[in-house]
Write a structure and sequence with these properties.
Elements (H helix, E strand, L loop, with lengths): L1 H5 L4 E5 H11 L3 H14 L6 H9 L9 H13 L5 E5 L5 H8 L1 H4 L8 E6 L2 H9 L1 E3 L6 E3 L7 E5 L2 E5 L24 H15 L5 E6 L1 E3 L3 H4 L7 E8 L2 E8 L2 E2 L5 E4 L2 H15 L3
Parallel strand pairs: 1-2, 3-8
Antiparallel strand pairs: 4-5, 6-7, 9-13, 10-11, 12-13
Bound molecules: zinc ion (ZN).
Length: about 280
């Protein structure tokens, strides 16, 4: 949404998680693998022998972590592909050691004159959990929506209950499905989320780097003093009456990590808050 507002030609979203998944794919293709190894031979500096690192890339299961120095080299490779653009580096730093790396990142990648900023977003665990559990994905175009929090305009039903029908422009529309593992919610990534919290705290205490602070949740009892109804995420449910599907919309109240009852903001007000803070930081 942010890049839609700013202009998609000026900004590139670089997800470190997606980047690592792409590397896993490259390792399976002999030609791409050879190029990657060549790049690492030239650009990798670290405490593990490169052969060992490549072996661990070959036999990697998704749980094992790559050394920081490899992540850095790979991120540099991606950044050089995106010259002259604002880069939204998503999911970096990934651990506490990388926090200190990220401080020197601007120098490492040779963007010495580019201003940099940390963007920290606070989303309660329960909200992440509900978003994963109710997520539905279109098998044709990969659009993801939520049966509970962001349904499509078309709803269908069969023996298993109601389902979303993809209404993305250009997609011929199909039954949206649950992604494998989503039914477990945050359980498989809980450790990762607790680590993220530590990283956020550490990054928050840094001097010298400007920070944009975003929040997803506002305590319900004071929410109306800060936001309007349409800025809050409603909760949807469905009822089948005489073969017709009825959509029921009501306010969504959810406990944050301290047990305080909260409302969850829609994406747009969070993006507006991000833009306001960036304007102030960069004195635009
Ligand atoms: Zn679709």
């Amino acid at each position: 949404m942010f890049s839609e507002v700013i202009g998609g030609d000026k900004i590139e979203h670089l997800s470190v998680g997606d980047m690592i998944r792409t590397v896993d794919e490259e390792m399976k293709d002999p030609q791409k693998k050879a190029e990657l190894v060549k790049f690492l031979e030239k650009n990798y500096r670290g405490f593990y022998a490169l052969e060992d690192v490549i072996k661990s890339l070959e036999n990697r299961d998704t749980k094992s972590l790559l050394p920081d120095e490899i992540i850095l080299a790979l991120v540099k490779r991606e950044i050089t592909k995106r010259k002259g653009k604002v880069i939204l580096l998503d999911g970096f730093p990934r651990n506490l050691d990388q926090v200190s790396f990220s401080l020197f990142f601007r120098d490492l990648v040779g963007y010495r004159d580019d201003p940099d900023v940390f963007i920290l977003i606070d989303v309660p665990m329960n909200i992440i959990n509900e978003r994963i559990k109710w997520r539905r994905v279109c098998p044709k175009c990969n659009t993801s929506r939520s049966l509970k929090l962001l349904p499509t305009s078309k709803i269908g039903h069969d023996d298993d209950g109601v389902y979303l029908i993809c209404d993305e422009a250009g997609c011929d529309g199909g039954k949206m499905v649950t992604k494998e593992g989503d039914e477990k919610g945050i359980e498989p990534i809980k450790e990762r989320l607790l680590m993220d919290e530590e990283i956020l705290k550490k990054a928050y205490s840094l001097y010298g780097v400007s920070k944009v602070l975003l929040r997803n949740a506002i305590p319900a009892d004071v929410a109306c003093e800060y936001v309007d109804d349409y800025e809050m995420t409603p909760e949807y449910s469905f009822e089948i009456v005489d073969g017709e599907i009825k959509t029921i919309e009501k306010p969504w109240i959810v406990a944050d990590d301290d047990g305080i009852q909260c409302v969850s903001l829609q994406a747009a007000p969070v993006v507006v808050s991000m833009i306001k803070q960036l304007v102030e930081i960069f004195k635009l």
